[in-house]
Write a structure and sequence with these properties.
The protein is of the alpha/beta class. It has one domain: Class I glutamine amidotransferase (GATase) domain (Rossmann fold, 3-Layer(aba) Sandwich), CATH 3.40.50. 26% of the residues lie in helices and 23% in strands. It has a nine-stranded mixed beta sheet. α1 (4-19) packs parallel to α2 (63-77). The protein is globular.
Length: 285
């Protein structure tokens, strides 16, 4: 796993600072979001999140590390606990009964045509549309191309990754409950995705690529052939449920970034029903 073992202790130490009320992110100035009071720990029992990281295509080296980051975010915040389906064999447990025991399901760098039968696919759609939460990270959009309802659930399908470099991520609305505390923009090194279509019409874009950081002015294109807007994270209603996707997450270092962790924790709280957001703020303005 590239870069994960050496940085794990310091990376996971960030989560305590992110989730303690009033804690400043001291000592991580290169990557830290502005200090801000965190939301209080939930009064009730922790939610349960079903984390699916099985792959039927490309397998990212960062998956084991990202699972540890998600687990630690849950423990340190007290907001949620996790159940993992880490390989194709474990997908037999992605059933209506398993989903009913959780408040959200997280497709964490999944890829390819996962072997989900018709009843499992129906169970996933019913779970989210009936009031559950869905999260996807990075290659979750490189998953289940043959199932259009999944494309609606995650919001878009992967097209290509024309840039793997340090980029600037713009935050269109710093006051949004899911991006509060991130500042107007932040830099990180990642494999940047573009998508076959814009996120579905009702999705609210939370992060965008700053086109200047890849030599693209937003209209004239670049040497990559990509033109126009490149969204990097969004949220949307899905029936009575909630859907969130972030394109960030190719490298271990992305998962240790304070901005990414802050966004993910807010998204996990929202999708599990612990963070209430005005429905108007979860749709395209």
């Amino acid at each position: 796993m590239a870069g994960g073992t050496r940085s794990r202790r310091g990376a996971l130490a960030l989560t305590a600072a992110l989730t303690l009320p009033g804690a400043a992110l001291a000592g991580v100035a290169r990557t830290a979001a502005p200090a801000q009071e965190s939301q209080e720990a939930p009064a009730g029992p922790p939610a349960r999140v079903l984390v699916v990281s099985a792959t039927a295509g490309f397998t990212h080296d960062s998956i084991p590390f990202s699972r540890e980051v998600i687990d630690r975010l849950g423990r340190e915040s007290g907001a949620f606990e996790t159940t993992h389906l880490p390989d194709l064999g474990s997908l037999r447990d992605l059933t209506a009964d398993t989903l009913a025991a959780h408040q959200a399901v997280f497709f964490l760098n999944t890829s390819g045509e996962l072997p989900l039968d018709g009843s499992q696919r129906q169970a996933l759609v019913r779970f989210v549309s009936g009031g559950g939460g869905f999260l996807g990270a990075h290659a979750a959009t490189d998953t289940l191309y043959s199932w259009p309802e999944y494309g609606e659930l995650v919001g878009a399908y992967f097209r290509e990754h024309p840039w793997t470099q340090r980029v600037t991520v713009a935050v269109p609305d710093e006051s949004h409950p899911l991006t509060a505390g991130l500042g107007p923009a932040f830099d990180l090194t990642d494999e940047v995705y573009t998508f076959r279509t814009a996120p579905r019409a009702e999705a609210r874009v939370l992060l965008r690529l700053d086109p200047a950081s890849v030599g693209m002015d937003g209209t004239s294109g670049s040497t990559s052939g990509v033109r126009g807007d490149v969204p990097l994270a969004w949220c949307a209603p899905f029936g009575a449920g909630r859907s969130f996707y972030s394109a960030l997450g190719h490298f271990d270092a992305v998962w240790q970034d304070a901005h990414v962790q802050r966004l993910l924790l807010a998204a996990l709280r929202w999708t599990t029903g612990q963070l209430s957001i005005d429905p108007a703020l979860t749709r395209s303005p």
